Amino acid sequence: MKILVTGGLGFIGSHTVVELQNEGFEVVIIDNCSNSSPEVLQGITKITGKEPIFEQFDLREKSKVQDFFKKHQDISGVIHFAASKAVGESVENPLLYYENNLSTLIYLLQELSGKTSANFIFSSSCTVYGQADELPITENAPVKVAESPYGNTKQIGEEIIRDTCNVSKNLNAISLRYFNPIGAHPSAEIGELPIGVPQNLVPYITQTAIGLREQLSVFGDDYPTSDGTCIRDYIHVVDLAKAHVVALQRLISSNNTNTNYEVFNVGTGTGSTVLEVIQSFEKVSNQKLNYKIVGRREGDVTAAFANTQKANEELGWKAKSTLDDSLGSAWKWEQKVRS
Ligand code: UD1
Prior knowledge:
The chain is of the alpha/beta class. The chain has helices at residues 11-22, 40-48, 62-71, 87-92, 94-113, 149-167, 201-210, 237-252, 274-285, 309-315, 323-338, and strands at 2-6, 26-30, 53-55, 75-80, 118-125, 171-178, 180-182, 216-219, 231-232, 234-236, 261-266, 272-273, 291-294. The protein starts with a strand and ends with a helix.
């Protein structure tokens, strides 16, 4: 069965390609390499023994998307990762984000809604919940006003898919709301490759530990949490990748006859503070991390972690890795990349 993975050379995309190939799917990747590199193909091939088909182009070029689907009429499912994801950049350049993240989604759905049967998985984010009123967060928690254009593209993206599924009954879709993906493949053949200064916590930690950054700034220790730092749900990227495979299998076997559009949280269900992440990292890397407490970062919520019951019961999926496992793999990857 042939699956299109857009953004398949990126962090979550590449790990998902590996899990798809391990399950026997044939994978075609479209990636414009704006935030990734064709070298990632080698890592995927080394792990799985199979090189995925790769086409390098930008999904904003509608005619190329149309030509692609004419050429690959046997695509059974699409997992759509390709998108811009830097929160700060989205505030500075909202139109880029709306164009990049929404026009590409629309072009793909236009192709799929004309098919007799199509399966679609969308990369959404727990950012849609903002600061949820209740923890852990269930899928029924209200979607809050987005903090950034990036977050808004995820909310609007979900609405576009829901509305399209309402009228295109041939289209089955799932939005996966990721919590905080971290870590790398245990082989250290693929992992996260942030361009420039990392904005996210774990790559900043590993780059500080390796000597690329001088010091980690911990954004605020006056939150109403056990140690005053923010709480997040850090999920190993391999667990997250596997969630895509089971979601795809659910769509292919049309396991849910009640609706053709569903939403699932993908997290571990456990929240960790920033200081707990640092402690866990110090333990697995066997070294002290240079960090200091600074003021809060604008837009950060106090706490977010998932209620994963729906994914556990309906997808038969559960995260397996611990925080130590995830940070250990991130550290192994950082050391490999810089060696
Ligand atoms: C961020 C985005 C979120 C996006 C997700 C994608 C913001 C406000 N949110 O989530 O919309 O979906 O990335 O991966 O940008 N921290 C530090 N020092 C650092 C970096 C982070 O203390 O140098 C803290 C943050 O304050 C936060 C935690 O670490 O408490 C996690 O931060 P981060 O990795 O950026 O993820 P989110 O903010 O949860």
